[in-house]
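Standup notes
- HV: blocked on the assembly model, inputs below
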Amino acid sequence: MSATARPQTLAGGGAIAREGMFLAEQLWPIKGQLVLALIGLAIGGIMGLMQALDRIGIVMYKAMLMQTYYQGLTIHGVLLAFLFTFSFSNAFVSLLAIRGFERPLASTFLVQGAFWTMLVGTLLAAYAILTNQATVLFTFYAPLRASSLFYLGAALLVISTLLTALNLVLTRRAWQQEHPGERTPLLGFVGVVTYVMWALATVGVVVLVVFFLLPWSLGWLKTTDPQFNRILFWYTGHPIVYFWLMPAYISWYLLVPRQVGGRVFSDSLVRLAFILLLVFSVPTGLHHQYVDPGIPTVMKVVHLFTTFSVVFPSLMTAFTVMAALEDGGRARGGRGLLGWIWKLPWGDPSVTAQLLAMLVFILGGATGIVNASYNLNNVVHNTSFVPGHFHMTVGTAVALSFIGISYWLIPYLTGRELMGRRLALAQAWLWFVGVLLFARGQIAAGLLGEPRRSSIGEAPYRDLIHAGLDNWLTAIGGTLMVISGLLYFIVVLWTVFGGRRLTQPLEIPIAEMRFGARETSPLLDRLGFWFLIAVVLVAIAYIPLILLYLPLQSVSPPIKVY
Amino acid sequence: MRIEAYERFFMILAALLLVLGIVGIAIGALVAGVHVPSPAGRVDPRTLTTTPPFDQPGLRDLGGGKYEAVVIARAWQFQPNQIEVPVGSTVTFTLATPDVIHGFVLTGTNANVMVIPGQIAQVTARFDRPGEYLWVCHEYCGFGHHQMFGKVVVR
C-alpha cells in the first residue's frame, strides 16, 4: 500500500473518552437491552438443536416442551431474528453514539422507553408463542392466524428500535447545534445512518400490522389480501437484513482495525458505503418474491437491479475492512503477500470471532447473490439453500460478530475481566466449523429440492430427496453451533459473576484514519439529502407496483392450522 | 473527495462483477428462456372448488405433447398428488389454494412457485427423461406442512 501514513483520530473524538458523557440513567437501559439480547440468543439458539437433529430423523420437540416442531421454529426465528438483533443493536449503537458524539443521548426518556417497549413486546410475543397461539414463524404470513398479542408484541419490538432511531437523530442534531459547521463524527454518523435506513424500512411492516393484521386478528376486519400483505412484509423483510448487518459493519469498519493495530483506509469511503446502504437497502424487497404469482414481472426486474446495487457497498466493505486488517498485520511485522494474516491477534477472542465471521460472510454474500439472481432463484427459492445462506449472514456474520463484540463490551460495561479466554477462542472456532458444515449440508440438500422450514424428520418424502449425507452435515454442524453457544454463555456468566475486577476502566476500541474527515466531501455528511433520495427510490420501486396490483384481493379470513 | 488508486481499482472491479452478473441473468432469461412465474389471474379461495378449472382438478391433454395439470394445494395435501405423462411432455401446472399460503417446488426442474390465496399460480416444466419427479410444499402451512407432496411419473 503506497498511501502515506497520516494518523488522525475520528473527527470530533479524542483518544480518551470525555468525562460525564455516560449517564447512569442512560447506561442501565443500554445494559438492560444487552441482557434481553443475550436471553434471546440463549433461548432462540437452544431451539436450533431440535431443528438440526430433526434433519436426521431425531424428532425431539416434545422433549423441548413444544407442541409441534413449528412452535420451536417460531421461537428460534422470533427470538434470534428480532429480539437478539434488535436489542443488541439498540444497546451497541446507542453506546457508540454517546462515545462518537462525546455527549449523552439527547433523550433519557427515549432510551429508557426503548428498553421498556422491548421488554413488554418480548413478554407479549413470548406469551402468545409459548401458549401455542402464534405458531406462525417469524414471517407471520396471512392468512395464518396468530393471537393479537403476538402482533402487538412484534409491533412493540419495532417501536423500540424506532424510539432508538429518533433518539439518535436528535442526538446528532444536538451535536450539530453545539458544533456548527463541523463534519459529524464518523462513529456517530454510521449509527445514525443505520437507524435512519431502518426507520424508512419499517413503513411496510408497520402498515401491515396496524392496518391489516391487528384489526383482522381482532375481528374488526373480516378478510385480508395475503399477496399484498407479503409485499408489505418484504418491503421491510429485506432491508431488515441490512439493519442486522450494519451494526456488525460498524464494528468491522471502525473498531476491529483498532483491535488489530491497523487504521481505517478513509473516512470518505466508510461514509460513502453507509450512504449507499441507506439509499439502496429498502427498494429491494421483491427479490424475495420472484416466484410470487401476483406480482408483475417488470417490477421483479426493477428490484433485481436495485438489489444488485446494494451489493456494491458490501463489496466496498470487503475492500476497506481487508485493507485495515492488512495495515494492522503489517504494523505487527507481517511480511509478504499474505504473511500479515498470521500476525493478526488470533489469540484475542473478540478479534478471532469477528475475523471468522467476516470469512464466513464471503460465502454468505456469494450465496445471497444466487438468491437475488432472478431466474437462478427458481432453483433455490424456499429450499433449505436459503437457511444455508442466512446462517452464514445473520447467523454468523452478524451473530458471531455480536458475540465477538460482547467479548470487550461485557468487560467494558461490568468492569470485570473477560474470563475463560481459551474457552472463548474455542467457542469462535467451533461456531466457524459448525456453520460451514451446517451450511454445506443445507445448501446441497436445497439444490436437491429439500424444502426449508419443514420438519424433515417427520416428512414422508424424506428418503425421496436423497440428501442423507447432507442432512447429517446439517445436523452435526448445527449441533456444534449449539455447543459453541453453550461455551459462550459459560464465558459470559463466568465473566459477569466471577470475573476479576479490572484495575483500569476499559476504553471502547476506536480506530484511527489514514485519511480523516477533512478530506471528505461535505455532501457525504448531508443525511437529509440522502434520505430524500432513498425515499424517491422507494417511491419508484413500490408506487408502480402498488398501482399495478390494485384493487386489493381481500379474500382471506384468519385460519388457524396449528 | 479523496479516493485512493487501490480504492478506485477495487470499486471498478466490484461494479464490473455486478454487471457480469446481470448479463448472466439476461442470457439465462433471453437465450435459455428461464423465466420467473408471472401473474396468471386471480381467484376467490372461498369459492375455489366451484370455480373452473379448479372445480375439476387433474391432468388435461392439450395435444401435441402438452398437458395442463390443475392442482389444488390445501392443508395438507395436493389434489391430485400424482400425475403420469409420457417422456418428452411439457406440463403446465396451474395451482391455487382455498386456505393458507402453500408452495410448489418440483425437484430436478426449474419449476418453483408460491401458491397464495387469491392468486392463480402457473409454472411449466418439460420432462425429457423417464422417472419420478417429486414435488413438495415449500411454505409453512400448519402442523401437517411436511406431509404435503406429490409426484410426476414420467414413462
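- HV (later): unblocked. The domain at 24-549 of chain A is CATH 1.20.210.10 (Cytochrome C Oxidase; Chain A). The first strand of chain A starts at residue 263 and ends at 266.
- Next: hand off to the docking folks.
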